[in-house]
Amino acid sequence: MSAGGRPFHEGGAGTESRFLQGKTGGWLLALLMAAAIVRLWVMPLPSSFWVDETGTAFVVRRGADDPTLSVARQVPASIYYILPSLMDRFFGLSETAYRIPSLVAMGVALWFIGRLAARLIHPQAAWFAAFACLLFRGFNYQAADARPYALGTCVLAASLWLLARWLDEGRWPHGLGFAVLAALLWRIHLVFWPLYAIYVVYAAIRLARGETRVQAGALAAVFGALAVSLVPVMFQALSLMKEAGAHVVVPRPSLLELVYALKLGFVAGVGLASALLARALRWGRRERRLAADAWALIGAWWLALPALLFGFSWLTGHSVFVPRYLYLGLPGAALAATAAVATSLPARHWRCAALGAGVAALALLGRWDVLWPPHHNSDWRSASRAVSELVRERAAPVACPSPYIEAKPPAWSPDYPADGFLYSHLVVYPVQGKVYPLPFEPEPESLAAAEDLLRTKLKPTERFIVYGPAGGAGKWAQWFTSRLPDGLWGQQRRGNFGDVSVIVFERTGR
């Protein structure tokens, strides 16, 4: 069915390709989906947390009112933490347990995305749209991530499905369900505000074209109640705006980065490949019969988040064009690609196309060079063990730069606790030895404290360790080297822990 309740199909079940037709084809696609989910989502679950996930564990274990969280007040501002808190209560501090809620949320999201594809594009398009989502690394990443993005994707997909059902059928349970989920969306992450443009655009098009059973007054009442419910979140977000500059981790995006974020190459490439195949196999010219309101929902879901965050980054000077913030727009790109395929693909070939997309997702993103693919290129768990082994081998102080950009004066000071939020990785993966916290990177305001640390704690020893994010640890190691006597100290990088570094300084002479 189309978004407006109109049928969109070419031929009935009898025109389905003999290959993959009937229950056998359904089971084959289901098995392929299960294999893809196991490889792409489940197998990374036990790997080490990356730094933001250690932040999740910190909030769960220490609580949102921990005083050291004052340097990043936006971090605990999410209802998401209810889920890992429940997992921690039953299973303790476990990478797999913390990530299970995200895995479940993405499974639910995938189902709703498939239902929307069937409703908006073609009754047989659900499998293809689901596998098209799996072709995005960022979509799969959310399923094994103990962060709010998977929950946001799930709530967005479910709320859009309920909105479409409500506008189609006019049933109040769907309208109320949409309002509740939409009210939760911004409470999951404060950067999700651009997603509300999708609701507004889709509902406005449906109302303007008279393709809904919902009266304008009822629509205004629900959207008005939704707006009122979001007022407290809006004030919270505005109160944090003055601190936004301290949390910027990427420069303002270029137009090329915007094009990449929109996945224009993927959408155009999939549509072009389908058109060329249709011409080569003489499938005949297909009529574009996708309804205007369906294009509105798909287009808004595809474009709103990247375009609005791009504009916000340039207008305010505070760049929020971070790849993980854009993940919730990926299902829109997958639906856009599915819609592009629908313009040239006969109905009987949808399952074959889905099979091809699923095989491609497994082949291209399966990380077949390793048995257990890591979730993120950060192995804090193994790095912490390596540091502890070095300290047990021979006592040595550990200089530890923070992996958070917020760790700079005045938020950071020499007496900042090593078990505070800015060193959440040390809380989750503690190390042996005396730890001396350092800021994110060498800056003029912190160099006096670093000079004192080097003179009083590090130089008098036979060996010391610099342990932290690769970038920060490398810069601090370079700074230490510039202030140590030539020829008396050597350094060596130990292990391979992704973007985490363990650098050992040893005295080579006297």
Quickly list its features.
single chain; 510 residues; alpha/beta; 5-stranded mixed sheet; 20 helices; 5 strands; disordered N terminus
Distance between the termini: 80 Å
Number of domains: 2
Mean pLDDT: 92
Give the overall shape, derived from the CA principal axes. globular
How would you sum up this structure in a few lines?
The protein is an alpha/beta fold. About 55% of the residues lie in helices and about 5% in strands.
Summarize the structure in words.
The structure is a single chain. It is built from 20 helices and five strands. With 510 residues, it is an alpha/beta fold. It folds into two domains: 105-244 and 254-365, no CATH class; 380-507. The chain has a five-stranded mixed sheet, with helices on both faces. β4 and β5 (500-507) form a beta hairpin. α1 runs parallel beside α16 (350-365) and α14 packs antiparallel against α15 (330-342). The longest helix is centred in the N-terminal third of the chain and has 26 residues, at 95-120. It is globular, with a radius of gyration of 26 Å.
Fold blueprint:
Elements: H1 22-42, H2 51-62, H3 82-91, H4 95-120, H5 126-134, H6 137-143, H7 149-169, H8 172-188, H9 196-208, H10 216-229, H11 231-241, H12 255-261, H13 264-280, H14 292-316, H15 330-342, H16 350-365, H17 380-393, E1 398-401, H18 424-428, E2 435-438, H19 447-458, E3 463-469, H20 470-483, E4 489-497, E5 500-507
Parallel strand pairs: 1-2, 1-3
Antiparallel strand pairs: 3-5, 4-5
